[in-house]
Write a structure and sequence with these properties.
alpha+beta; 6-stranded mixed β-sheet; 5-stranded antiparallel β-sheet; 26 helices; 7% strand
């Protein structure tokens, strides 16, 4: 519990690493993941640091790997991920990796360039093939049109320039075969969606002096650059004169149409078509061989690309870390400063020894503890169970160094407060089973590496969901509520004293507890209340009082944790001037209220039910109660000036009498006097020095630093006044805030009843085959609404309210949350992210 209750004890250390052994030592520390390095060159530009060239080389290798990864994904080749975590390569291996990546990149670029050129050539031949086919159709139609002109027997209206395949636009109304063949023409291919604009532009620019025929290419063609499928059309344009030819070509160029040579005679077109088909067959063979070669190269790269990524990122992380170090005057030793846990110093020393041995260096590395006034980072050790609850706490603010960590208490209190608002056995079971599924299958689900953000949120909080479901089932049993229905487990504790005639003649009867109440129900709420008209009044009264009791109890616990903090940091003045008056104030105002609630619950029996007051405020339970309550109010009022004035006045008195520095030094010495065994200065050994940590009254003076801050009585009074007013008002507002437990529980119950009464009860009220058919139709709708509205939406609402109660009402009593998280240099964070993202 000690490591859970507080963060790890940290120390600032200085590392002396020989240049030849620095890389391997940092590599070992990265595998260990227990050291947070400080940047000793904050004012030095990133491009002016010692190892900037190595970092650039790593960036270049990462770029090449990303290029290969993109090509592998483009071809849909699976990348082998064995889960291996190779060690960081030696610096000399960078050359081999660079050569391998350079060879693969050049080979892929050459293959891509050849493939693109072949595909472009294939596209051109395919378009030319379609042009030869379509233009032959155009000329055949023109031949038929010419015969229709010279043969009067052919109907003039059955064969025109606009007939046949594809659309046409012409300007010369009477162009015959002789004029068509002797006129000049161009043929090409254009994107299908550009045809209307292309046709209008030709008409306007050439003023109707051209003849256009176009036909769609049925099969889509592959773009050689993007690989997308595009739809194109073949066109042929007839014109007269060089001026129109120039205009037509410019328009084609503007619309990015591709022009191809097209012979005028059918024989030449047929010969060209045969040659084109032969070349297309040859290109298909070459393209297949090129794709096979590309596939083999990518398959070989896919087997190692995950390992290559890890190696390159580890190298880059090491050099990125080495750039934070300083060089000594001899340029042979690197000096680093780092935060590390005191309990792990032996493991860090062993890692440094291994790094020195692997590098072959003859000079050992030295670890030297330093004195500092800086506040250390907060390091809370967590496992997969406690991590989600720690993240809930850290989302509000990271704990100060060695401050009480609320996470262990949140493990129980958070799901319990959630369950008070969400109490339903059926809904809690749905949540419990979902959390249990993720917990039992966590290894398989983790191995899948699902990329969905919403899924990852639920999966990372699987233990929170599991506990919330468990506690919700417990409170559901306590409320005797399962999908808004009650279950009769132990039989009712009420018995009817009416005869059969009275029961049959009256729809509503009132039961007298004096002769109807048998005894207390064994567990939870008696199921008979589900049948009564005053069910809401009874359950509301119970839930409201329970909310107040648990809320005030949690506030008491928060104030007690402030005592634990003050005792640990030896803040005796805060104990006397804050903790004691706060406890007295809260007890006089609200602790007494809890006592009255329990007294009313236990004092009045069924025989005294008529004497029980509706509220505790209007009841007189004992003699002299009114005077005692006035006394409690007066004591609570006296606590206000106690919290407001005593601490600033005592601090001013001590400051004037010169005792403040002595008080602070005594506090720091009691807390920060750590004793460690002296070790010989061998590889990775520790040179012990006194270490000063963050305390309440400031830190001991360090040479070279300025004098202590002057005591400002006015500033201290303002601070204490704000703190006092805030506490007094919060006692009232936070107590009222805990009523949200009752309000959300009521809302959840009523929504569940409405959904049951308006949906499922309709099917249950029908008998026979009709009832079965209606149930089959209605039950999926009811189940879907239950999961979406009552489990997901209501669950999210209860989760957010429980979050607020912990952050504001509970943690504000003792938790500062102004620290910063310990972020060790660890290779574990680099497996899925880049170095900059991990930092």
């Amino acid at each position: 519990m000690g490591t859970l209750l507080r963060s790890e004890e940290m120390t600032l250390c200085q590392l002396f690493l020989q240049s030849e052994g620095a890389y391997t030592c940092v590599s070992e520390l990265g595998e260990l993941g227990l050291v947070q390095f400080r940047d000793l060159n904050p004012d030095v530009n990133a491009f002016q640091r010692k190892f900037v060239n190595e970092v650039r080389r790593c960036d270049e290798m990462e770029r090449k790997l990303r290029f290969l990864e993109k090509e592998i994904k483009k071809d849909g080749i699976p990348m082998l991920d064995t889960g291996d975590n190779p060690d960081a390569p030696a610096p000399r291996e960078m050359i081999d990796l660079e050569a391998t990546f350079e060879k693969l990149e050049n080979e892929m670029k050459e293959v891509n360039a050849n493939s693109e050129a072949l595909k472009r050539n294939f596209l051109e031949l395919t378009e030319l093939k379609h042009i030869l086919r379509k233009t032959q159709t155009f000329f055949d139609e023109a031949e038929l049109h010419t015969q229709a002109i010279h043969d009067p027997s052919m109907a003039e209206d059955t064969m025109g320039l606009l007939g046949g395949e594809g659309g046409a636009s012409g300007t010369s109304s009477q162009i015959g075969l002789s004029s068509c063949f002797h006129n000049r023409f161009v043929a090409g291919v254009i994107l299908r969606e550009r045809i209307p604009a292309f046709e209008r532009m030709l008409w306007r620019v050439c003023r109707g002096n051209v003849f256009l025929r176009q036909a769609e290419i049925e099969t889509p063609l592959e773009d050689p650059v993007t690989g997308d499928q595009v739809h194109k059309s073949v066109f042929i344009i007839f014109f007269q004169g060089e001026q129109l030819k120039s205009r037509v070509k410019k328009i084609c160029e503007g619309f990015r149409a591709t022009l191809y040579p097209c012979p005028e005679t059918p024989t030449e077109r047929r010969e060209m078509a045969i040659g084109v088909m032969t070349r297309i067959e040859d290109l298909n063979t070459v393209l297949g061989q090129t794709q096979d070669h590309r596939h083999r190269v990518l398959v070989a790269a896919a087997k190692n690309i995950k390992v290559w990524f890890i190696k390159v990122r580890k190298i880059k992380a090491i050099y990125h870390t080495l750039n934070m170090f300083n060089l000594d005057v001899t340029q042979k030793c690197l000096i680093a400063e780092c935060w590390c846990p005191v309990t792990d110093l032996d493991r860090i020393q062993q890692a440094l020894r291994r790094g020195t041995e692997h590098s072959g260096s003859s000079v050992p590395s030295i670890l030297n503890r330093m004195s500092t006034k800086q506040e250390p980072p907060t390091y809370n050790r967590n496992n997969k169970f406690t991590l989600a609850f720690q993240e809930i706490v850290d989302a509000y603010g990271v704990a100060c160094y060695r401050e009480v960590n609320p996470a262990p208490f949140t493990i129980i209190s958070f799901p319990f407060l959630f369950a008070i608002m969400f109490g339903d056995l059926g809904h809690g079971m749905i949540m419990f089973l979902y959390g249990l599924f993720m917990v039992l299958r966590e290894k398989q689900l983790t191995a899948k590496k699902i990329d969905n953000e919403i899924w990852n949120i639920f999966f990372n909080g699987r233990y929170v969901i599991l506990l919330m479901g468990t506690f919700s089932m417990y409170t559901g049993l306590l409320y005797n509520d399962i999908y808004s229905r009650s279950i009769n487990l132990f039989g009712s504790s009420w018995g009817s004293n009416y005869d059969f005639k009275a029961l049959s003649e009256n729809s509503k009867l009132q039961m007298n507890p004096n002769n109807s109440f048998i005894g207390p129900y064994p567990f939870g709420i008696d199921p008979i209340w589900a049948m009564s008209e005053n069910k809401i009044a009874v359950t509301n009264s119970f839930k409201m009082k329970v909310s107040i009791v648990f809320g005030i109890t949690q506030m008491y616990f928060g104030i007690v944790l402030s005592l634990v903090n003050n005792r640990y940091f030896d803040r005796r003045l805060k104990i006397f001037c804050e903790f004691i008056p706060q406890m007295i104030f809260l007890t006089c105002m609200f602790g007494y209220l809890i006592v009255l609630v329990f007294y009313k619950w236990t004092h009045f029996t069924s025989e005294m039910s008529q004497e029980a007051p509706n509220t505790c405020c209007e009841a007189m339970f004992y003699a002299g109660q009114k005077g005692f309550q006035i006394f409690l109010v007066m004591v609570a009022a006296l606590c206000v000036p106690w919290m407001l004035l005593v601490k600033p006045l005592l601090e001013r008195h001590w400051y004037r009498s010169g005792q403040v520095r002595q008080q602070q030094n005594m506090s720091d010495q009691l807390h920060n006097n750590f004793q460690h065994q002296q070790l010989s200065v061998q590889s990775g050994d520790l040179i012990n020095q006194e270490v000063y940590h963050h305390g309440d009254g400031g830190m001991p003076p360090v040479s070279g630093q300025g004098p202590e801050k002057e005591f400002d009585f006015a500033e201290e009074m303002i601070h204490q006044c704000i703190h006092t007013i805030e506490f007094c008002l919060n006692c009232v507002s936070h107590t009222a805030s805990y009523l949200r437990l009752w309000a959300l529980s009521l809302a959840h119950t009523q929504l569940s009843e409405v959904l049951w009464g308006m949906v499922l009860s309709v099917a249950l009220s029908l008998n026979g085959y009709l009832g079965c058919v209606v149930m089959l139709a209605i039950f999926p709708f009811w189940a879907g609404c239950t999961v979406i509205i009552l489990v997901l939406m209501e669950g999210l609402s209860a989760f957010l309210h429980a979050l607020r109660l912990h952050w504001v009402e509970f943690q504000s009593k003792f938790y500062q949350g102004t620290g910063y998280k310990f972020q060790p240099f660890s290779f574990e964070n680099l497996l899925d992210y880049s170095v900059e993202e991990a930092k």
